[in-house]
Design brief:
14% strand; 213 residues; five-stranded parallel sheet; globular
């Protein structure tokens, strides 16, 4: 089963992808997480990606596509995967499809998590992320048991560099311009499903499970 998560920055793609990964035993592949890991480790890829990410812009397709195709070629992806934050442009979607077509495969579900822009800035300002295991929380909506500490691994949580309000606004603009067209792209391929991302996390997940069964 191959799933693509669509939605604006902060819509809850990562939150839902994590739950799907656990329930269906599929790898959760977030291009944003891979870039952040590379930044943390000081790799060449991380250095290249950081300037774009901090500005709220997209990392160039060439770099992103190469990294993603390499990742989905891994052994753990044979039964499928959940892509979170990829594709984000039409050329990225076309590159992925070209590769899948070669293997006689395709995307089974593109799930669009819908949240209006007004809610997004609010969500981002409360987001806290674990720099070690990638778990995501929210000060108000998804609090940790112990303030500022990851429930999963006990690491101190951080605020993402690109969650400043000005950067969030830029990311939203980039989303509308470059990523939203993917909704029609997957609608045309007859694999598009939509969920209301403003509901509680568990209700959104129930809607997702209904789609996947
Ligand atoms: P990426 O890491 O993918 O960021 P994003 O798409 O902007 O999405 P977010 O991770 O911010 O949001 P999310 O939808 O995962 O929401 P979350 O679950 O955390 O990308 C970062 C950057 O990397 C990009 O800007 C770009 O520069 C680069 N990049 C990445 N992929 C790329 C690509 N393919 N091409 C080019 N560049 C690329 O939830 C948000 C908050 O809300 C959390 O605090 C969460 O706890 C809370 N929350 C979640 N669900 C709910 C709910 N139902 N109710 C209340 N609160 C909720
Ligand atoms: Mg995310």
């Amino acid at each position: 089963m191959k799933i693509v998560m669509l939605g604006a920055p902060g819509a809850g793609k990562g939150t839902q992808a994590e739950k799907i990964a656990e329930q269906y035993k599929l790898p959760h592949i977030s291009t944003g997480d891979i870039f952040r890991k590379n930044i943390k480790e000081g790799t060449e890829l991380g250095r290249e990606a950081k300037s774009y990410m901090d500005a709220g812009r997209l990392v160039p397709d060439e770099l992103t596509v190469r990294m993603l195709l390499d990742r989905v070629g891994n052994e753990d992806c044979r039964e499928g995967y959940i892509l979170d934050g990829f594709p984000r442009t039409i050329p990225q979607a076309e590159a992925l499809d070209a590769e899948l077509t070669k293997r006689g495969e395709g995307i089974d579900y593109a799930i669009d998590v819908e949240v209006p822009d007004d809610n997004i800035v609010n969500r981002m300002s409360g987001r806290r992320a674990c720099p070690n295991c990638g778990a995501t929380y929210h000060l108000e909506f998804i609090p940790t048991r112990k303030e500022g500490i990851c429930d999963e691994c006990g690491t101190e949580l951080v605020i993402r560099d690109d969650d400043k309000p000005e950067t969030v606004k830029k990311r939203l603009a980039v989303y509308h311009e470059q990523t939203q067209p993917l909704i029609d792209y997957y609608k045309n391929k007859k694999v598009l499903y939509t969920v209301d991302g403003t509901a509680d996390v568990d209700d959104v997940f129930d809607a997702v499970k209904n789609i996947l069964k």
